[in-house]
Amino acid sequence: MKLATTLSGQTVQNRVRDVGINPDHWYPLGWSKRFKTGQVKAVTVWQQPMAVYRDESGQLYALEDACPHKGVELHHGKVSGRHLLCPYHGWEFNGDGECVNIPYFPPNSKLPCAKARSYPVREQYGIAWVFPGNPELAHRCDPPEVPEYGNDDWLMVPITGHFHAHFSIANENAMDVFHGFLHEELQGWFDPVLLDLKQDEDSVCASYRVSYKGQMAKFLGLTDSADEVTTRTISVRYRYPHYYSTLEGISSIHLMRLPVSPTETRSFALFFLKVRLPDWILNPLKTPLTLFIEKVLFQRFLNQDIGMMESEQRNYSANPQRRYVEVNPAIIALQRTIVAQYDRVWVGSGENGSQEEKTSETD
Question: What is the rounded CA–CA span in Å between residue 183 and residue 165?
């Protein structure tokens, strides 16, 4: 459905700052290389603590981070072969969460019916993914497509983000191209204009016209001269719960969102840039160039965004009843999508989301 692009004031529905996730999607656990063979890591996906381990064969598993015996956190345990051992009594669990051995039981004894919840896991694009919802639905959807991945025409830069803010705040930051004012000292974009806006039940697509000038724009291939103003079109697509953005085929970014709690969000992004250099020059420079773009360029922009997002969260947490005005219809559309995805799973279910529903109904 095509929406109007007119900028006009609307009161923000505060409920968007309280809703949880639709768990029936794939969410990133982290970069695959961070999960080493024989190690266990603690990861939280929207208030669901998980113990994630890689067995001796390299297979990754995710179990609820609570032993069904005493409730001890399993991420403190250790990996033995293909199984995870609880740190307290050494109870042994397979990748499906089933107890397969208790070290102080006599051989061939019948084991108690003790099982930790397991979650579907897969690895794709150098990212470990988990499906925290109904496991029977995991095969019906996939993580977002990243067609640039593995294509030598693109320089890939992985970027990690950590924000002490609700995921709706982080998502709005990615959709809100009008905040280029924040980055003006870093030679960011300016004079943004919302050109087109579409929405359906799962996604929001917006196109903006933006202007660039300066050495940063020249380095990124957005302009041929640092002294000239160049106008480009940036397209942003939020397909719940992740982002894709492209700048006229010059660069693109796939932003994978991990909601952790009502006040914490992580992200794992893949930024792709077409570098206009011959392979014989580019190949030796890929590693230092990737680090430069990540640490020097992107991190400076990201740090400014983090400051604003966390400031927004602090004020909301201090006074959830305060009303706010939004003028960007793309943000209003985004908020509708986030709330609708939550309602699709939880409203009327009477389970899990009921307490959050009661809280948000006070808005």
Answer: 20
User: Which amino acid is located at 219 in the chain?
Assistant: F
Distance, CA of 206 to CA of 243 (rounded, Å)? 11
Tally of CB atoms within 10 A around 359: 14
Measure the N-to-C terminal CA separation of the chain; round to a whole number of Å: 28
Closest alpha carbon to 193 in 228, 138, 137, 231: 231
In whole angstroms, give the CA distance from residue 210 to residue 359: 39
Whole-model pTM: value is: 0.91
CB 213 within 8 A of CB 226: yes
Residues 130/143, Cβ–Cβ less than 8 Å: no
**pLDDT, tens digit (0-9, with 9 covering 90-100), for 297-309:** 889 999 999 999 9
Rg (CA), the chain: 23
Q: Which two tokens stand for residue 101?
A: 């051995």
Say if CB 235 and CB 16 are below 8 A apart: no
If DSSP codes are grouped into helix, strand and coil, which group holds residue 17? helix
What's the rounded mean pLDDT across residues 143-150?
96
Asked whether 199 and 170 are in contact (CB, 8 A), the reply is: no
Of 150, 148, 133, 124, which Cα lies nearest the Cα of 268? 124
Measured distance CA(87)–CA(264) in Å, rounded: 28
Q: Cα dist. 51→21, 112, 139, 143 in Å?
A: 20, 21, 22, 21
| Beta-sheet pairing, 78-80 with 83-85 | antiparallel
Residue 357 · residue 347 · CB < 8 Å: yes
Which run of H or of E encompasses 129?
strand 127-130
Which one has a higher pLDDT value, 256 or 358? 256
- Quick one: DSSP state of residue 226? T
Q: Which helix (H) or strand (E) holds 311?
A: helix 299-318
Question: What's the confidence (pLDDT) of residue 361?
Answer: 37
Quote the CA–CA distance of 153 and 170 in Å, as a whole number: 30
Does residue 179 sit in helix, strand or coil? Answer: helix
Strand order in the sheet with 251-261: 155-163, 264-273, 251-261, 242-247, 230-239, 203-212, 190-199
* List of residues 6+ apart from 169 with CB closer than 8 A: 17, 163, 265, 309, 312, 313, 316
**Calpha distance 225→220 (Å, rounded):** 11
